[in-house]
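Listing S7. Sequence submitted for prediction.
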Amino acid sequence: MIYNKEQQATKIYITKFALTKGIFTRYANIDESNTAWICNSSMIKKDYFLTFEEAKQDAIARQQNEIASLKKQLVKLESKEFKE
């Protein structure tokens, strides 16, 4: 699907880059498979939401997952022993 200017654009909240750039909004055409089209680029449903509250919940979940991952990495790094 290519961006259709005649179709009504929907405001979406994008969380794909929430941990680095924050939540941002764009207007996109959404097709029957829930793919959001912005110009000639597409975005799948797990990376955008129709309300800010849903987007905020997803961003918090992404943040918590990243923190858990970093804690695991830290434990692994701290337990590393260097032997001759």
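Caption to Listing S7: primary sequence and predicted structure tokens for the chain studied. Residues 10-78 form one domain. The chain has a mean pLDDT of 90.
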